[in-house]
């Protein structure tokens, strides 16, 4: 799961701290890239739930 929240509080969603990625943490970017490269089927969902969020498209 990738969440583009305005406030980083992954502990509020059960399992997100252990199984999610933080796009704003440069140390996690290579791990995110590696995981995405290994996907050979299925779908990736990106959802913007509403304002505010840090980086509007």
UniProtKB/TrEMBL annotation:
Principal EC category: oxidoreductase
SUPFAM superfamilies linked: FAD/NAD(P)-binding domain (SSF51905)
Keyword terms: Oxidoreductase
Record bears the keyword Phosphoprotein: no
GO MF, any single term: oxidoreductase activity
Its EC number(s): 1.8.5.-
Alphabetized PANTHER family for the sequence: FAD-DEPENDENT PYRIDINE NUCLEOTIDE-DISULPHIDE OXIDOREDUCTASE, PTHR43755
Name by which UniProt lists this protein: Sulfidequinone oxidoreductase protein
Organism whose genome encodes this protein: Marine Group I thaumarchaeote SCGC RSA3
């Amino acid at each position: 799961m990738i969440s583009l929240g305005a406030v980083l509080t992954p502990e509020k969603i059960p399992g997100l701290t252990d199984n999610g990625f933080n796009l704003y943490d440069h140390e996690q970017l290579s791990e995110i890239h590696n995981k995405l490269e290994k996907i050979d089927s299925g779908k990736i969902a990106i959802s913007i739930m509403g304002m505010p969020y840090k980086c509007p498209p």
